[in-house]
Amino acid sequence: MRKDGLLFYDEYERFYDMAGKSLAFGRFCKDAFGEDFSQDGFSDMKQVERIIDLIPAGDDVHVLDIGCGNGKMLRYLQRRTGIFIHGFDYSGNAIKAAKEMSGEKADFRQGAMGETEYPPESFDVITSMDTIYFAPDMEKFLLHAIGWLKKNGVMIIFYQEGDVMPKTDGPGATILAKSLQKTGIRYESENITEETYDLLKKKRQTALRYRKDFEEEGNADWFELLLLQTDCVTGSFEQFAQKMARYIYIIRK
Q1: 3 occurs within a structural domain
Q2: How far apart are CA 104 and CA 102, in angstroms?
Q3: What is the tens place of the pLDDT at every residue in 200-249?
Q4: What pLDDT shows up at residue 40?
Q5: Angle at 175 between CA 169 and CA 180, to 5 degrees
Q6: In the predicted model, is pLDDT for residue 8 greater than 80?
Q7: Domain for residue 1, yes or no?
Q8: Residue 136 falls within a domain, yes or no?
Q9: Which of 89, 110, 163, 245 is the most buried (most CB within 10 A)?
Q10: Residue 110 maps to which CATH number?
């Protein structure tokens, strides 16, 4: 895997190293999001429940998480549903942790989007939790990923605007939506911007409660990053929505 040119590669190597050692960060995630999945951004339980609603019943159900990090969310889905879990991420530190903590019915691989391969029709559900931005060619990758889905399979994409991706005029105008439209892939969308505003406010309030814990660990820089990530919610929701947006896209094969 070529590491040069990968978006935020060094930052995420440091992040997953920190996440594997910091007790403060684990407690922060559980309080802010409902469970500790080593969240860098979102993945609160309300969002994760949307994934669970899409997982079919059965003994041979396979779920792939694109950009799976250290696999904590996948393992939670497995505990809830008994699925086979699959994930890939470009972070060596993340995948090392995922493999160390995984049991049976699990496959974790280090790899980048556009380079990692799976056989056609391998998965019942594919998730992308704020990771589709990392595709070097979004249209090409979407077509590729849809090929990994089984017949009647579902792909769910969580998509944020206003930071990595530019803010547009709505869920039908995003770079992701335009890529789906160009490739002829049908999709449903849901606007969860207001829900995200409330979540970020909780994230900021929780971070402030754990400030001393981060500092005592020597992780004051990560606390400062949490505040930076949530500066956008120090004003009103109307101000937030002018600059930021968050959507869910669901693709059914």
Answers
A1: no
A2: 7
A3: 999 999 999 999 999 999 999 999 999 999 999 999 999 999 999 999 99
A4: 87
A5: 115
A6: no
A7: no
A8: yes
A9: 89
A10: 3.40.50.150
Contact 38, 69 (CB under 8 A): yes
In angstroms, the CA 141 to CA 54 distance is 22
Taking only the tens place, the pLDDT of each residue in 39-64 is 988 889 999 999 999 999 999 999 99
Q: How far apart are CA 12 and CA 89, in angstroms?
A: 10
Q: Helices marked H in the chain — which ranges? A: 9-21, 23-33, 45-54, 72-81, 92-101, 138-148, 175-183, 193-209, 211-217, 220-229, 237-243
137: which 2 tokens?
A: 């060619």
Structure tokens, 6? 């990968």
- Tokens 């949490």 appear where? 226
Q: Residue 245 domain-assigned? A: yes
**Which residue segment(s) compose the domain that 18 sits in?**
9-252
- Tokens of residue 32, six digits: 């802010």
Q: Are 171 and 191 in contact (CB under 8 A)?
A: yes
Stated length of the chain: 253
DSSP symbol at 166: P
What single letter denotes the amino acid at residue 250? I
The alpha carbon of residue 81 and the mean position of all alpha carbons in its chain are separated, in whole angstroms, by: 19
From the list 2, 15, 8, 7, the residue with the least C-alpha distance to 226 is 15
Which residue, 199, 138, 158, 136, is CA-closest to 5? 136
Which token pair is 72?
């904590």
pTM of the model: 0.93
- In Å, what is the CA distance from 166 to each residue of 151, 163, 200, 239, 243? 33, 7, 19, 16, 9
Asked if 101 and 76 touch (Cβ cutoff 8 Å), the reply is no
